Amino acid sequence: MSSSPPGLLPAGWLDELGDFLAIPSVSASPARAGDVARAADWVADKVRALGGQAATHEDGRLVVAEIPGPPGTPVVLVYGHYDVQPPDPLELWESDPFSAEARGEWLYARGVADDKGQLWMQLKAIEELVTGGSLPVTFRVVCDGEEETGGQAIGRFLAEDDEPADACVVFDGWMKRRNRPELVVATRGLVALDVEVHRIGVCQAPTSCSMSEMSSKSKSTPTLYSRSSMNAAMRSRVVSGWKSSLEAPSSRPSLFCLTKIVHASAPRASPMTRVAEINALDADFASSTTATSRA
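The structure assignment produced for this chain is given below.
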């Protein structure tokens, strides 16, 4: 690893992490499937070096391992993921995304903060316990190589696994302040949506404008409102073609874009979201909605 900062970690630690980060395990790219499997082997080999047993499954998209502690001790399940997001656009990187580089106190590489760095830290913590003597608990290490693409390998494992676990540690978060660790006791999942906004008078349909483009051209930033947050006056401005979508009961969330000069549409309505077309709003109406809660 280039320019390793002295004194921050024991000798060799960052070099080991650099070897892990050098594997371009981009799960979104079929061409990188072999690299995802290589990252799985790296994790499995690390566990074996600590005296544990490890096996890869699902064509390298799942690692199941165990480092046994004394009989009768609690079992701690350790989760992390070894796949990473694509590094594009590459021109925005100041260094090779798969060659870790230390600049000052910061380490730059794809996956160093999501989630190879955290997974490596958990394995190093176990290594320190192994080196210091007998383990206080049994560690089960279960991690996957498709977290970034929403794969189901880990879900299938959990559905079929009947081994015990007294606690689970997921080290895939952040600290808002340096030297002030945070303990998150629950997770609630993730909801994503795609919105295409077409600007009448500036963009020629069907060319879409980004939010930033519309803001710079119209001096008005689109605001998205959920169905439940729209008052009667706002609902009355929805064009007739979308009245049924607005009023009909639905388990799907719908978002409505309300701005003075913007029409919104969703030619590729996602499974979770539809965007309603809205008539142009008068200035006085737009100002009357400023206190309305926003989605």
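Interim note for the steering committee: The chain has a mean pLDDT of 75. Residues 3 and 102 are 5 Å apart (CA to CA).
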